[in-house]
Design goal:
This protein is α+β, with helices and mostly antiparallel strands. The radius of gyration is 23 Å and the shape is elongated.
């Protein structure tokens, strides 16, 4: 089953790939999502993504949880996972995974399994 663009005005854009129906009775319809998609595969163009945001963005932010206080980067929550690459190794990785603290610039070694585990972190809240 094809995935359809979620843009509320997608069918309003007059392009040849949106035209459907027999000659003399053409109509525009919403596009299906192809290889090039936007917004995690929900929109066919940035224009459709923008249309959706204009119509639903405020409600989406309110529903997901609006931030009311600034989020502060500290030494405790500044850890990011990094991987070193080298062009000298035929574009393969050297297997050097590490945590990098964006504030202190400290590095800590990391295994490949830890790097690939999306729940593994050194960040403290």
């Amino acid at each position: 089953m094809s995935k359809l663009c979620q843009g509320p005005r997608c069918h309003m854009y007059d392009t040849t790939d949106r035209k459907r129906g027999p000659k003399g009775n053409k109509r525009n319809q919403t596009r299906t999502i192809g290889n090039y998609s936007y917004g995690n595969g929900n929109f066919c163009t940035l224009g459709c993504q923008s249309d959706w945001w204009e119509e639903h963005g405020t409600r989406a932010v309110d529903n997901a949880g609006r931030i009311h206080q600034p989020i502060v980067l500290t030494e405790q929550n500044a850890w990011t996972k990094q991987q070193r690459y080298s062009w000298q190794d035929d574009f393969n990785t050297l297997g050097q995974y590490y945590f990098h603290n964006m504030i202190t610039k400290e590095h800590r070694p990391l295994t490949e399994n830890q790097y690939n585990d999306n729940t593994f972190t050194l960040n403290e809240r």
